[in-house]
Amino acid sequence: MSHFDEAREHIAGGVNSPVRAFAGVGGEPVFFKSAKGAWVETEDGRRLIDYVGSWGPMILGHSDSDVINAVVETARRGLSFGAPCVLETQIAKKIRELMPSIERVRMVSSGTEATMSAIRLARGHTGRDKIIKFEGCYHGHSDSLLIKAGSGALTLGVPSSPGVPSELAAHTITLPFNDTDAVRAAFDALGEQIACVIVEPIAGNMNMVLPEAGFHETLRDACTRAGALLIFDEVMTGFRVAKGGAQSLYDIRPDLTTLGKIVGGGMPAAAFGGRADIMSSIAPDGPVYQAGTLSGNPVAMAAGLATLEKIDAPDFYARLSDRTQQLVDGLAAAASDVNIPLAVSNAGGMFGFVFSDEPQVRRFDQVAAANIERFKAFFHGMLDADVYLAPSAFEAGFVSIAHGDDEIEQTLAAASKVLASL
Ligand code: KE4
């Protein structure tokens, strides 16, 4: 019996999060046993170069000794208190130092919780119900965000999952990413009803899609004019694409930011925060309720704080960006050598590649129209060559500071062979 078969006898779908099940690429998922630096060791004794990094948190590489030591030392003093501890204040100060738009922060335990709370806060603070999100962006699995576009551009949303009441879906408007005309039309039609816009400032859940020039400025200006809040969902991009996240790359000051992944250093921790006047609406200061037994858990705070302190090192992002650029340039060259159309993108330690004829993908429909079967074959060819990529054509990839020349060269050598075989 395989690990997956046994897991399926006890765990729904055999996994605790759907993307891990390899449904997007076929075959059985790889079971990890341990990980160090850029490498993971599987239950069947293989060593793989890892470009998923737990979907983003492992920017230092797996099992960073300083993070592990911080976790162990903190755990020895107690796993959870349900009472304030200074570690929570220390990481809050560090987050604010790295992201000045965040004047007050609230720690939570997952990105879903962060975005769900930020949406409720935006609705409570503005007294409005409607929200705008973008096609291809994922913000976790809370009801208001599991919504896809209705039949028309401005018709209100429909659930993208059973279990989401249609009445709730009706308050979510889904627009095409990078479509500034659609944004303006939505605000012209519904501006005073809109509580917020939530956006992945660099989209990482439809592979990787960069914003076009002017897109974020249009969002910022439309929200300001209408009295709506701009929420940057930086769960993935925060501390990943730059020390100050995507908001520092595009020089945009969102009203609220959500964080996850790296902020927890691999432990269950996430956050939302932003303008002090808005955050004052959150309980206990304000009427918008939000809570969590393990919010600010000391062991998770220790992992996150140790991580944020290490990424704040001189030239950390210059080195990380160079490594990622080396990877995507190599992938593009290898595909070009065998006349396979491949659109690549990267920012900081995040990258994407789409088997598309488009030189750059800018919208979800372009990613959906790409050659998914070719992606699946590439994924498995690379896995056979001991390179672990995200098991879905709709996910981004992640490079850690522990990925060195050897790992990149081994990856590109494998890619050349696999691409030539497609
Ligand atoms: P979590 O609830 O999974 O911690 O975070 C939700 C979330 C929110 N916002 C963005 C931009 C995200 O990318 C995510 C979660 N990302 C996925 C990978 N694309 C997590 C992997 C999974 O679902 O297992």
Characterize the structure shown.
The protein has 422 residues and is an alpha/beta fold. It folds into two domains: 3-63 and 315-421, Aspartate Aminotransferase, domain 1 (Alpha-Beta Complex), CATH 3.90.1150; 65-311, Type I PLP-dependent aspartate aminotransferase-like (Major domain) (Aspartate Aminotransferase, domain 2), CATH 3.40.640.10. 36% of the residues lie in helices and 16% in strands. It has helices spanning 3-8, 65-76, 86-98, 111-126, 166-169, 180-190, 215-226, 246-249, 276-279, 298-311, 316-337, 364-368, 372-384, 405-421, and strands at 32-36, 39-42, 47-50, 104-108, 130-134, 147-148, 158-159, 172-175, 194-199, 229-234, 256-259, 270-274, 343-347, 350-354, 387-388, 397-398. Strands 4-12-11-10-9-5-8 form a seven-stranded mixed β-sheet, sandwiched between helices. Helix 11 runs parallel beside helix 14. The longest helix is centred in the C-terminal third of the chain and has 22 residues, at 316-337. It is globular and about 55 Å long. The mean pLDDT is 96.
